[in-house]
């Protein structure tokens, strides 16, 4: 058999062994060169967050003389800082978000006393929308007259008042010229000359849709038209103000803001109506509180969704997938 051209008579080559590498293979150096890690954003952040731990401190006190070990420790601290920051955000969104965005809310700041709230202390009534408490230093005759009243009940019509100055600039309808102490106001006129002492800065708060008969809402203020309705009867149904009031009372349209503010003649009566019939405020949430409640509902749905998905996936794995992982393969495979 002829030999390949360019080769010797023999084709003997030195074999490769564990201690004798191939001739064309470069030997590995005994001392490796130190390769510095690139300054990526993660490395920079880890060094910034651990600025209080210089390398000499880690070497002397931490026993970490190797720079790679020091960097690994710094990255662990950086990871812990990120986890702590995320946990702080979750705690803030859960506990402290209402305190920030519900500031001034009539529900969350405790600046209202809800009407007919049975869980609250007795003796709290309303005068021109403000809270009065007859358990504190009121004359004994008032305590007897207003005993066993509903929580937050309006008793403004029992006290003598003059017609507000703003009513003199109204359009002259009967609702703006009625004497507050008229004998036909529903309680037989004003029984007391002096107005009660207001002990609190709180207002009487009414929940939407839970007003007594004869009440309506004008721009967030609850108005008690009962004295006027008792006084007017059917005498003034042709007047514009009377029609707007009776729409709220007879048809159950409690909010009369649009009729009063859209009509120039009715708009003249707004201040007079406020000062004459005000009995409290509408208990409502601010837009910030609405957003907080919306976030809480969204977070609740997401968390419950994740829990349910994990639960059903576990059931699917247990009863439909796990047995396939341990079954004997067929012989043809």
Summing up helix and strand content along with how strands pair, one would put the structural category as alpha/beta
Termini separation comes to 45 Å
> How many helical stretches?
11
Approximate helicity band: 40-55%
Low-confidence stretches: none
Strand content: 5-15%
What does the largest sheet look like? 5 strands, mixed
Average pLDDT confidence is 79
Give the strand order, joined by hyphens, for the main sheet: 1-4-7-6-5
Using the CA coordinates, give the radius of gyration: 41 Å
Strand segment count: 7
Shape summary: elongated
Could you give the order of the helices and strands? Answer: HHHEEEHHEEEHHHHHEH
Describe the structure.
The protein contains 11 helices and 7 strands. The chain has helices at residues 41-49, 55-60, 67-101, 140-145, 174-177, 226-232, 240-250, 257-262, 264-267, 270-277, 287-325; strands at residues 112-114, 124-127, 130-133, 203-206, 215-218, 221-224, 278-282. Helix 1 (41-49) crosses helix 3 (67-101) and helix 3 packs across helix 11 (287-325). The protein is elongated. The model has no long low-confidence stretch (mean pLDDT 79).
Summarize the structure.
The chain has 333 residues and is an alpha/beta fold.
List keywords for this structure.
333 residues, alpha/beta, five-stranded mixed sheet, two-stranded antiparallel sheet, elongated
Topology diagram in text:
Blueprint (H helix, E strand, L loop, with lengths): L40 H9 L5 H6 L6 H35 L10 E3 L9 E4 L2 E4 L6 H6 L28 H4 L25 E4 L8 E4 L2 E4 L1 H7 L7 H11 L6 H6 L1 H4 L2 H8 E5 L4 H39 L8
Helix pairs in contact: 1-3, 3-11
């Amino acid at each position: 058999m002829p030999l390949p051209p360019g080769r010797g008579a023999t084709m003997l080559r030195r074999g490769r062994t564990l201690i004798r590498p191939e001739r064309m293979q470069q030997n590995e150096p005994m001392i490796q060169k130190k390769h510095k890690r690139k300054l990526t954003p993660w490395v920079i952040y880890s060094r910034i967050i651990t600025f209080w731990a210089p390398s000499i401190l880690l070497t002397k006190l931490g026993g970490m003389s190797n720079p790679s070990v020091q960097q690994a420790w710094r990255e662990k601290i950086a990871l812990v800082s990120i986890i702590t920051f995320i946990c702080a955000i979750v705690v803030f969104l859960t506990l402290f978000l209402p305190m920030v965005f519900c500031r001034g809310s009539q529900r969350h700041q405790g600046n209202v006393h809800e009407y007919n709230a049975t869980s609250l202390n007795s003796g709290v009534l309303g005068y021109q929308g403000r809270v009065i408490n007859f358990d504190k230093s009121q004359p004994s005759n008032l305590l007897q007259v207003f005993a066993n009243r509903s929580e937050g009940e309006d008793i403004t019509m029992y006290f003598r008042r003059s017609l507000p100055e703003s009513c003199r600039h109204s359009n002259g309808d009967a609702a703006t010229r009625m004497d507050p102490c008229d004998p036909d106001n529903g309680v037989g006129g004003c029984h007391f000359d002096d107005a009660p002492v207001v002990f609190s800065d709180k207002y009487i708060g009414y929940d939407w849709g839970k007003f007594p008969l004869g009440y309506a809402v004008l721009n967030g203020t609850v108005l008690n038209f009962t004295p006027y309705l008792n006084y007017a009867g059917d005498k003034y149904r042709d007047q514009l103000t009377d029609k707007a009031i009776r729409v709220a009372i007879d048809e159950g349209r409690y909010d009369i803001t649009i009729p009063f503010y859209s009509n120039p003649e009715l708009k003249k009566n707004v201040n007079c109506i406020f000062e004459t019939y005000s009995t409290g405020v509408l208990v409502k949430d601010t837009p910030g509180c609405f957003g907080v409640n919306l976030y809480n509902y969204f977070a609740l749905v997401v968390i419950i969704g994740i829990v349910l998905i994990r639960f059903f996936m576990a059931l699917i794995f247990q009863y439909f997938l796990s047995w396939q992982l341990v079954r004997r393969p067929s012989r043809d495979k």
